Input
Amino acid sequence: MSIAPSDITIAVTVYNRRDYILKAVESALSQTVPVRVMVVEDCGPDASLRDLVLAKFGDRITYYRSPVRHGLFGNWNTCLEQCPTPWLSILHDDDYLATDFIENAIRLASAFPDRGFYCGRGRYTDQTGQEHGFGCPPLSKEMEELDMNQFADLNLTLFPGTLFRPKDAKSLGGFRTTSLFCGDWEMWFNLAYHYGGARTNACMAFARSHFHAERGTTKIELRGLKFCVDFVQAKRNYHLLHLRDSKARFDRARHLSLNIFPANALLRHGAGFSPRMLKYNCGVFLQAPPETFSRSLLKGCIRLLGWRGVKLCSQVYRAVKRR
Output
């Protein structure tokens, strides 16, 4: 069954943010293949945000404001409930889409019909919109079925630039609102596992990186929980694969080879980790390939000084950076 543009809604989620929302909505409305666009506001304190968006886009969009605060994952579930079409793509208020996202998604769906999840590659940008690299590995060809073993180890797509059926997501219980970090990866993997999935090499979207301590994803990294949570999610994914194939097993070495622990993460944030999380992250780092001079040097320091010594290294690194 083919997907028509009239079958698709792009839902732009927003909570108390004015600086990027117009750019996000504009990218949804500027698709080479026009679709419905809906803004879903999570009951933010700035009631005039609706006026700002509607003054710019008027009746080109539908605007829904939740009467109560649901949080990040809960607002994604609101998108599932409010979506008027069989297919949905959710876009954060600070991210934006490639103009041919929908065109590429429909092309992918035509090549791999009757799947429940479609995605592509995405690029990170800084707060000014300067691009700085892809957020997922390239394909060896233009399009292919999702490799579920690789997908179990590694989130193969950024959050924006995905396409799925809301009814399928609701049948799986919706996005898990208690998720610390991996609520999107968990849903994408479950959709592909139960309903099939395919991926294109085309760049579908742009995700903006922020370094504000109040952002939930930044808090996870600053506390040293990111890799810990990733491991837990990968093990959940492999549990599902094991139900289908008894030979499927979580391989720690494989997971680490796909999720390289950056040396500068320890140096930037290690001083703020709790002793338990610093010890855990040092252990992960010592096992993670590949070797480079900077990684080898830091590994040598960890082996020589122990995880407590890394806190001192981190404090020195941050002091030098502030100069």
Remarks:
- The chain has a mean pLDDT of 90.
